[in-house]
Amino acid sequence: MWGSNRWARNAQTTIPCKHCGHPITVVRSCQHVYMQCEQCKKQGDLNEYIPLMDDVLEEFMEGVFCDRV
Ligand SMILES: [Zn+2]
C-alpha cells in the first residue's frame, strides 16, 4: 500500500505458531503489538515470541519503536 514494509501494520515472520506450527504474523494496532496466526486464528502475546525473534520481527519492532516520540 505504502510501498514499504517498514511501516506496515503487520508482517509475516518465520516464527512457528505455538499452537499449530504455521508461520505466525506480527500485528500492531496503535500502541499494542501482538502475534496472530492466520492458520488457527489464535493470538499470542508478543513477549512469548520474543525469544524466537527472527529478522522480520526484529525489523518490525524497530519500526514500532521509532513511532515513539
Ligand atoms: Zn496457529
Provide structural commentary.
The structure is a single chain. It is built from two helices and four strands. It is an alpha+beta fold and 69 residues long. A hairpin with a 6-residue loop joins strand 3 and strand 4 (43-45). The N and C termini lie far apart (24 Å). It has helices at residues 46-49, 55-66, and strands spanning 10-16, 23-29, 32-36, 43-45. A four-stranded antiparallel β-sheet has the order 1-2-3-4. The protein has a domain at 16-59. Helix content is 23%, strand content 32%. 13% of the residues are buried. Bound molecules: zinc ion. The site of zinc ion has 8 residues, from loops.
Describe the structure using short key phrases.
alpha+beta, 4 strands, globular, binds zinc ion
Topology of helices and strands:
Layout: E1 10-16, E2 23-29, E3 32-36, E4 43-45, H1 46-49, H2 55-66
The structure holds zinc ion (ZN).
Q: Could you tell me which ligands this complex binds, including any ions or cofactors?
A: zinc ion
Share of helix, binned: 10-25%
Structure summary, number of beta strands: 4
Major beta sheet, strand line-up:
1-2-3-4
**In angstroms, what is the radius of gyration?**
12 Å
Number of helices: 2
- Determine the strand fraction and express it as a percent band: 25-35%
CA(first)-CA(last) distance: 24 Å
For this entry, what is the oligomeric state of its chains? single chain
Largest sheet: 4 strands, antiparallel
Q: So what's the overall shape?
A: globular
Structural class per helix/strand content? Answer: alpha+beta
The residue-averaged pLDDT reads 86
Order of helices and strands: EEEEHH
Low-confidence stretches: none
